[in-house]
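Render this sequence as a predicted structure.
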Amino acid sequence: MALYLAYTFYWAALFPEPASGSPLGTPVESAVDIAVDWSRLHLFVVTDAIRDVVSYGLLNPFEALLAGSPWYLVCAVILGLAAPLPGYGRWSRRPSASVCWSPPGCGRPR
């Protein structure tokens, strides 16, 4: 809930002002700012490596497989991925998944 409020409302994203005599506030805010600045400066190599591994190792081969497969096989895979989703209305997700995630090239002029 706090993440939703901080994302939606500007006032919820601000750190509260310290009460009189409170040790919180400016020291905590400055420590968090220092940690975030350090991580932005030094950890970009790690996050770029993770992004590249996921993109080139997982997403690109999966896209190539789906783009080169027949439409009925792609629909079967999408329905198979939508099948194990838990929760209310689970059976209604299969048709909506097949409609929303149309096969590559469907509806495009050749």
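Summary. The longest helix spans residues 44-67. The mean pLDDT is 74.
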